[in-house]
Amino acid sequence: MAEGTQPASRQGTAVRQDWSREEVQALFALPFNDLLFRAHSLHRAQFDPNAVQLSTLLSIKTGACPEDCAYCPQSARFDTGLKAEPLLPLAEVKRAAEEAKANGATRFCMGAAWRAPKDRDLEKVAAMVREVKSLGLETCVTLGMLQPHQAHNLAEAGLDYYNHNLDTSPEYYGEIISTRTYEDRLDTLENVRAAGVKVCCGGIVGMGESNVDRAEFLRTLANLPQQPESVPINELVAVPGTPLGDAAKLDPFEFVRTIAVARILMPRSYVRLSAGRTEMNDELQALCFFAGANSIFYGERLLTTGNPQNERDRKLFSRLGIHAEARVTSELEVACGA
Fold first, then answer.
1. Which amino acids are annotated catalytic?
2. What is the Cα–Cα distance from 196 to 154, expressed in whole angstroms?
3. pTM of full prediction above 0.90
4. pLDDT tens figures, 23-43
5. How does DSSP assign 236-269, residue by residue?
6. Whole-angstrom distance, CA of residue 219 vs CA of residue 21
7. How many C-beta neighbours within 10 Å does residue 29 have?
């Protein structure tokens, strides 16, 4: 493939949604070089191998969450020193989105620490979606559990993506969260799909789960009725004060294996390097890009944890010959003159 070109179509590689436990575990067990070769070959067939999509994440409502997610500094149940903040004003969100666009981001993601949004709050978020959309950015929000009518309201506001992670395998989930069931998460994904909004769904590795759990987590994603268009893979950021504050660091090669298997199972999805990049060296990130990661969170902060500075990312991209992916305008936007 010529430098800087996109594959003519992403329809060539068949998408399977019937992966067995044994098949996915066998992928994880492949020799490292064989696994990366297979993942990279699939990635190259579907995407420009030297392009990475840039997203920026803003916390629009921080802390005081009633859930007990063991990794999360925003839970009201844990003393992490995080100051709770109310929903940001619309003007502040717009300024942040304008800055993100100026820095090269094509998608702007907004996160609120709610178990589930109230309708009155959702109206304010819908206004933010419309404002960000008017700037020519893709929009994404993560607000907790959604009811069908709420998902439809966000769709009408122009929302492109809804993020709602499965976090881990069904079997290990109870070790991490007790205040929301796995089925609750699947129900929200179903409501989002029914509203016509794209799905951003992934999880976190390095929470003490086994290799089998990582395989089952990815298998669950791949076998959804429709695979997520965007799959964020987070490495745990161990925050003091949370139950996972002292969690052991995941072997970096296991993280790369997770990226590679995600690419093989979901060949047409964007696989995003998400939380944890601050502690990853350039060599590890380069391996992840080779293994099929083609999206990152770009900016100095995620919801409440740090992220590599923009300049560091620009230097890494330059060293690797990687470029930021331009936003692809949809046929509908062309028709509307966007």
1. 65, 69, 72, 109, 140, 200, 272
2. 10
3. no
4. 999 999 999 999 999 999 999
5. P---TTSTTTTPPPPPHHHHHHHHHHHHHHSTTS
6. 7
7. 11
